[in-house]
Amino acid sequence: MEFDRVKNGYNRYQVDSELAAKNQEIDELQRKLLAYKKQNEENDRKIEEIGRKYTKLLHDLDIKERAIREMTRNALDEANGILTTANRNADMIVKEALQNAKTILLNISKLGIEAHEIKINLNEQLQILSETIDGFDIPPIPNVELIEKKYKE
Prior knowledge:
Layout: E1 5-6, E2 9-10, H1 12-135, H2 144-152
Antiparallel strand pairs: 1-2
């Protein structure tokens, strides 16, 4: 802004009016500055509160992650223990089944041998019986008609 020139300098009313406007503008800017400072302090407080919450959340998350890792490790240990026990039990069952199968096969083999020996023995006895039967002489059968006639008389 330009001021009008007068005898001893500038127009006093114009200068005073401009100074009053500038002072009013300065007051308004200071009020805004104060409001911005208060808002900035409030924002700083909120940021600090959010930071504390964030730190607490990180801490809680870390605790939960450690707990999960511990539970996972325990579950894996337990599962491995169960698998180890199951494998041992399965091995014992398979060994026992194989032993039973071996015993059964041995018994079947013995029965087969005994059956073969019995068959040979029976064949020999049948042969002897057959020879005995073949060697057995049947006496002549008397004439039944003659006997009947004799009794009828």
